[in-house]
Input
Amino acid sequence: MKVTAIHSKPLGSTHAVAGMLLGEIKKSSPDAEVREFVVAGFKPCAGCFSCFSKGEEHCPHYGDVHPIITAIEESDVVILDCPTYCLGISGAMKSFLDHLGYRWFAHRPHPSMKHKIGVAISTTGTLGAKAVTKALKSQFFGLTAAKCYRLSFSVAGFDWNDVKDNKKRKIARAVQKTARKVAAGSGRANRSLYLRFILRAMRIVQSKNDWFPLDKAWWQKQGWIGT
Ligand SMILES: Cc1cc2nc3c(=O)[nH]c(=O)nc-3n(C[C@H](O)[C@H](O)[C@H](O)COP(=O)(O)O)c2cc1C
Output
């Protein structure tokens, strides 16, 4: 099993929960290969539309995006972990995720997403972690991943060291459960009927696409629409 973990920060409670999950995945699949990235300081999307119109290699931040998107495509499981900031996802994580727009279902979704499992993780002081994992789940949906598990926790602390032991034990149990599901479903997860319906509808849209010819050519190249 190949796993890519994309952390909003290199430390903190959310990173610690992601670390727990990686540890549990390694326990159930000792040969799991893990690649990790930190997107703190990621430059915001320039909004130049180059990825859509000319190709992702024309993105001004291609050098930063390319290794991560390649790791995502090569993985069975992708973890996105992000603290809750002002009831939403961190600016750093959003800055990174905006660069993946060209891989959304309306553009050039990658065939490797078909059986991919996502895991969305967030911690919050009190409120908002569920909204963050819901937002991260939408990103996995847009990228056409098969499945997304969510781990959202209120930790009542500024730092992982502040988090009470009973809370850590509760988190550990939820993480173990998710790790088991991830290990069992790796390479086998299937997309929801709703996502399959959207992808089918996109075939009609793409066959008429004269606004982003690169997208249409991609769908033709994959054999999803006729030439
Ligand atoms: C800029 C900022 C905004 C925050 N916003 C919220 C919030 O809206 N709700 C909340 O309960 N906690 C909020 N917190 C607290 C964090 O969500 C909480 O401490 C979280 O566990 C931090 O995760 P980390 O250790 O991975 O950074 C905020 C913290 C920061 C730094």
